[in-house]
Design goal:
CATH class of the largest domain: Alpha Beta
Number of domains: 2
Number of strands: 18
Structural class: alpha+beta
Strand order of the largest sheet: 6-7-8-3-9-10
CATH superfamily of the largest domain: P-loop containing nucleotide triphosphate hydrolases
Bound molecules: adenosine-5'-triphosphate
Number of helices: 9
Strand content: 25-35%
Helix content: 25-40%
Shape: globular
Distance between the termini: 38 Å
Order of helices and strands: EEEHEEEHHHEHEHEEHHEHEEEEEEE
Low-confidence stretches: none
């Protein structure tokens, strides 16, 4: 069991209020990702759950038990950091076994757990190697193995893949997701990469300046962003957000439409403009179109589209996918 509840959790560093009262219910077995721009408080919130940072106000509960004042080692959680911090002189086996040895676990139990974790992580053939003889992805797998053998109530991941190159990140992202499903252990995962959040999470917490803007499944956030911040943060390329007269005509302070919901050269109501830049990715064509009174609009067309800078185009907006937001930024 590993449900985690935050009740009115606040954090201040000296005079600076960093987390302004977070309420959250993380279900046992779920994969929850904290995402938000740099400095929004993701790591601080995770470290408070781990017990590595005190809480200025509010309570943290694990399986319904108040752990706000409980020492990190007694919370039954395992943390995986960005810097894997392996012991260089120990073998992979030694590194994975270290915590269990310190806890004086019997040798047979240690061997069984290490072998099981190594098999899950495809590390069996590397158990006798030293960390310097491993790739970055393999080292991070050792760090995850060290977390697995402790059989925690929940894994806490702090940007574990950000030291890896792009291709390896995609591969490790799948491996971590698969592993979490297999173990069915609660995971809380911090990242600033919204693609990582969308692909890995059961539910995403979008944080902005120490506040939870929305908590929901990736598709809920994509289809029904609660406010302008979430609308602009989730989705790549970003949603087009337009204020002023164009939005007012549609009865909103801000309207939003995603690039994939704009048909370049399509029929139907929309905007006329001039292509400023066209990007041909093969799989998609992105057009950045300058529209008078609207600004630069991003449109995305699947596949290759013969279009180039300077061309005049009509952009047809899909009316079913226009998001409307009020003066307070909230979805109408
Ligand atoms: P990033 O993606 O850049 O790691 P983050 O969302 O994880 O950002 P935090 O590391 O949680 O952000 O920091 C949130 C805010 O708290 C930042 O403004 C940071 O400067 C501040 N902060 C973090 N730790 C401390 C500290 N020990 N003392 C003072 N301020 C701190």
């Amino acid at each position: 069991m590993g449900s985690i509840t935050l009740e009115g959790v606040k954090k201040s560093f000296g005079p600076h209020d960093i987390i302004h009262g977070a309420n959250l219910d993380i279900e046992d077995g779920s994969f929850v990702v904290f995402v938000g721009p740099s400095g929004c408080g993701k790591t601080t919130l995770l470290r408070m759950i781990a017990g590595l940072e005190d809480v200025s106000a509010g309570r943290i509960l694990i399986d319904g038990m108040d752990v706000t004042e409980v020492a990190p080692a007694k919370r039954g959680l395992s943390m995986v950091f960005q810097s894997y911090a392996l012991y260089p002189h120990m073998s992979v086996r030694g590194n994975i076994a270290f915590g269990l040895k310190m806890a004086n676990a019997p040798k047979e139990e240690i061997d069984r757990k290490v072998d099981h974790a190594a098999a899950l992580l495809n590390l069996t053939q590397y158990l006798d190697r030293k960390p310097r003889e491993l790739s970055g992805g393999q080292r991070q797998r050792v760090a995850i193995g060290r977390a697995i053998v402790r059989e925690p109530k929940a894994f806490l991941f702090d940007e574990p893949l950000s030291n890896l190159d792009a291709a390896l990140r995609v591969q490790m992202r799948m491996e971590v997701t698969r592993l979490q499903r297999q173990l069915a252990t609660t995971a809380v995962y911090v990242t600033h990469d919204q693609v990582e959040a969308m692909t890995m999470a059961d539910r995403i917490v979008v944080l902005n300046a120490g506040r939870i803007e929305q908590f929901g499944s990736p598709i809920e956030l994509y289809e029904r962003p609660a406010n302008v911040f979430v609308a602009g943060f989730i989705g790549s390329p970003r949603m087009n957000l337009v204020t002023g007269a164009v939005a007012e005509q549609l009865g909103a302070a801000t309207i939003g439409i995603r690039p994939e919901h704009i048909a370049i050269g399509g029929a139907g109501a929309g905007w006329d403009g001039v292509v400023s830049v066209a990007e041909h990715l093969g799989s998609d064509t992105f057009a950045y179109v300058e529209v008078p009174e609207v600004g630069l609009v991003t449109a995305r067309c699947p596949g290759e589209m013969k279009i180039s800078a300077g061309e005049r185009v009509h952009l047809a907006l899909d009316p079913a996918h226009i998001h409307r937001f009020g003066t307070d930024g909230k979805a109408l």
